[in-house]
Amino acid sequence: CMRGEQPLIFENDSSIREYLYIDDLVGALKTLLLSLLHPPGPYNIATGWVYNQRDIVLKVLKHFPSLSPKYVRAKLPPQIQEETMKMSRWNWNRADLFPRRL
Predict the structure, then answer these.
(1) Is 44 in contact with 28 (CB distance < 8 Å)?
(2) Which residues are CB-neighbours of 78 under 8 A, at least 6 positions away?
(3) Which InterPro entries match (predicted)?
(4) Domain range for residue 15?
(5) Rounded CA gap, 26 and 76, in Å?
(6) At 20, is the secondary structure helix, strand, or coil?
């Protein structure tokens, strides 16, 4: 958008993401670091608000009224396709996140 180019919206991408504003991240980290009430260990910092990529593109476009999105069919980027092929050569099988017994 900053270069005047149409942003892409992938029609077949139903994934959702959580976006975290940097000030929120810094605030959460400061709270953890300054508080002795929190035991040490890993923490997931999240807002709980999720968006799909279409929602994000449309929000950005509110600041660029002269632009409209271009709807395209998503393909795996060549780099991801290449990495997937490399892993298949190892005879490696990924873990099933949702085994049938659940």
Answers:
(1) no
(2) none
(3) NAD(P)-bd_dom_sf
(4) 8-88
(5) 33
(6) coil
